[in-house]
């Protein structure tokens, strides 16, 4: 996608975001926060390019779809049994 736009992807490694907390709940909460950040960025991308490139729009939509599923799965893992709603 980056090369399609005439650029070259960076090979730099970003800052490590690990808090070094190793209990499962903390790891899942950090994961959920990361999924939310990714979702926000892909939604911003979609807003920026809407009406300009069908390819980029579809890419952004696919990524939003994937990140929403990821966030949903992590959210389910974080729920305590008492927080599950019963369907009518
Ligand atoms: Fe994800």
List the helices and strands and how they pair.
Layout: H1 24-49, H2 54-78
Helix pairs in contact: 1-2
Task: Give an account of the 3D structure.
The longest helix has 26 residues, at 24-49. 5% of the residues are buried. The chain is mostly helical. It has 2 helices and no strands. Helix 1 packs antiparallel against helix 2. The protein binds fe (ii) ion. Fe (ii) ion is lined by residues 35, 38, 67, 70.
Distance between the termini: 44 Å
Bound molecules: fe (ii) ion
Number of helices: 2
Mean pLDDT: 91
**What is the succession of H and E elements?**
HH
Give the fraction of residues assigned to helices. Answer: 55-70%
Radius of gyration, taken over Cα atoms and rounded to an integer in Å: 17 Å
In short:
The chain is mainly α and 88 residues long. It has helices spanning 24-49, 54-78. The protein binds fe (ii) ion (FE2).
Essential attributes:
88 residues, 2 helices, single chain
């Amino acid at each position: 996608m980056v090369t399609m736009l005439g650029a070259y992807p960076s090979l730099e490694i970003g800052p490590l975001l690990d808090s070094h907390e190793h209990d499962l709940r903390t790891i899942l909460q950090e994961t959920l926060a990361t999924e939310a950040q990714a979702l926000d960025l892909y939604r911003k991308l979609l807003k920026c390019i809407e009406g300009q490139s069908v390819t980029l729009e579809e890419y952004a939509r696919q990524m939003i779809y994937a990140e929403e599923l990821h966030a949903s799965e992590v959210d389910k893992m974080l729920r305590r049994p008492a927080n599950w709603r019963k369907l009518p």
